[in-house]
Hints:
308 residues; alpha/beta; 7-stranded mixed sheet; 7 strands; globular; magnesium; EngB-type G domain-containing protein; nucleotide-binding
Amino acid sequence: MLLRPRPSLLRALAPLPPLTRACVPARRTLSAAAEAAGTASAGDAAPAPAVPRKSARKLAPPPRDIVKTALFLPPGVEPGAAVTPDMVIPGSNIVVGPYAGDARVKEAEFVGSSARARDCPKDDRPEFAVLGRSNVGKSSLINALTRRKEAALTSKKPGKTQTINHFLVNKSWYLVDLPGYGFAAASQSARMDWSSFTKGYFLNRDTLVGVLLLIDASIPPQKIDLDCANWLGRNNIGLTFVFTKCDKVKKGKGGRPDENIKVFQDTISGLYPEPPPWIMTSSVTGLGRDGLLLHMSQLRNYWDNEAV
């Protein structure tokens, strides 16, 4: 089956100089655009079941100076448009846009694993890739989004995911679990192989709508995450920063989640011509689940409407 050309979700950017410190490329992504419609679609989302709090601490709201001055404007929202607080998805910088749609997950099924990018499902359904360090909580986030405890198996050993795993949601779009990067529990040669086929997936997947790049908010910003964002940006691949573990405060590891997010935002703020999308989440408390799904819904609708 022939695939429809992927519409351009990004503005063309001039090449950036080599990465010399924790930094990311200057570019705009429309990934968060979809969720920006969060307010319109939130009422349609299925009610969240009770989730054990595990003594989670109440978090401070996202830094107001960031939210006010670095809003992400999705497709359909013109620069300079009046934005009110109720137009911004809670715990994010994403403004609600006109492409919002039904964000409910009615069913999700595991389709299969692929050891090579060319073995991935060959159809025209849009998909979102979940990427991050090996212990950032990728599997937990996928399980939370689909509300299937074992949709993506979690493990105490980082690096358990060693293939490209496709999950079909509502029989209409894919959620893709990619191998984690960083200190994966595998040989150096295996890590290099994973890197190779993961990059092949990114560069050759026409149905890829956007990447959810997971960042552990319970610890200070990590250079390896910024390096990954840099590579994605250089290759014009849309991403949304998804801050995970926003319910956790780790003693001795530096800062609360909102403080670490502030540092992360300060680090990248000067490198983007326009603010990149980001959202706070917690697989324990359910924070950000509906907003993230709404974000993905809007991206899908934009992708579908712009596809030829």
